[in-house]
Write the structure tokens for this entry.
Amino acid sequence: MFQIVNRGGADNLCYDGATCLDTRREMPMSYLRTYQDALDYIYSFIDPARKPAATPDAAALNLRRIERLLAAVGNPYAGMAAVVVAGTKGKGSTAAMVEAMVRASGRCVGLFTSPHLHSYRERIQVNRELIPQGELIALTAQLRPIIDAFDPQLYGSPTTFELTLLLALQHFAERGTDLAVLEVGLGGRFDAVSMVQPLVAAISSISYDHTAILGPTLAEIAWNKTGIMKPGVPVVSVPQQPEASAVIATEAAAMGAPLWLADEAGLLPASGGAPQPYPVLPQPALRGLFQIENARLALGVAMLLRETGMDVPDSALFTGLDRVRWPGRFELVPTSPRVLIDGAHNGDSAQKLVAAIIAGVPHDRLILILGTSRDKDIAAIAAALVPLAAAVVLTRSGHPRSMDLDRMVAEVGHHLRGPLVVTPDVRSALDAARGLAGRHDLLVVTGSLFVAAAARAALGLAVSD
């Protein structure tokens, strides 16, 4: 076990006086002495040549690797109360709402999400306080000998995501969190997060994404998402497409996991019976129609947490939903003209973005700023968004996975009803869009979280690292 030095006194952004342990480590003797040293080490496990697991056996190997890694660091998740959230769209927002509601009850809550917008430290938070740089340095330095001693011959080399999960669980354990809210990275069945036994599991909206890894059908994608289910652990899902819904029901029955549906009328038991009304209205501070669905899911999680003995009063549910924040998701920036930033990254999320704009953001004309990643369905994204736009500005985030502009031009051209501008980066895209827009027009920046992050940075909204 690691030596802990308790120095106390941190402001942990708690509601109603909740407190967490404030543990700051003695710096170990290591050449990981700066924050950049720690980041360089963490990111050294990114291998661009690494291929996704092509078979179930290869994927299962990933679970055996994280199981061994967790054991090597002392299983910091053992006995930790947790909620695990999987899904294609909305799992991060759902996790943020669950965190906010439980924190509002006076508890110390850890939050693990990915990817980050601006700072790596966003991935590991306690009571929405980013893990301090010094703590990340010390944790990484302490874990490094264990990681470096790990033999990759049997299980393969660790990944950056796996190392981040180790860091998060260790940080949560040391801070004495009452609950850890963990967002699945990719899929669920073979994701490192699925090693954690939760009190409640949640599945947000499932749609087509990462099909090369998760499968080309909704049934296969749903099968991967249901891997977070555990025997006897309640799972709550939003209403899904019939193909995905059938798989969720089948897998829950096979696992012996009580299944609930976060329906419009309330929390509905899949086994039959009347729905339980939500204790408060699912009206989160997060904008967009789709956030109502995510709020229902988060409320369902909170209601099931109550049944485990965790007291989350109605007042905490209301306060959490009222104060929750999740930047880069339907984020309306009050500039002139206004800028709407959203990380919509597939056809389904693009359609939901369009519906939310039409329902809730009055404007004269819409100027679309679009950039996405190479593995995304640009045809579906363009079909949903471009017909709504009076003008389109195509751009790239600067991330190595950004889609080539020529490919985007070819797809967008089918749907244009106004001018098309091509720019090399998001900052110049914003400048070009402002030149096309009137005072009462709406600039919509979307296509990926990388583009959303670049827009926030260009607008001066980035979190300091």
About this structure: The chain is about 40% helix and 15% strand. The longest helix spans residues 289-307.
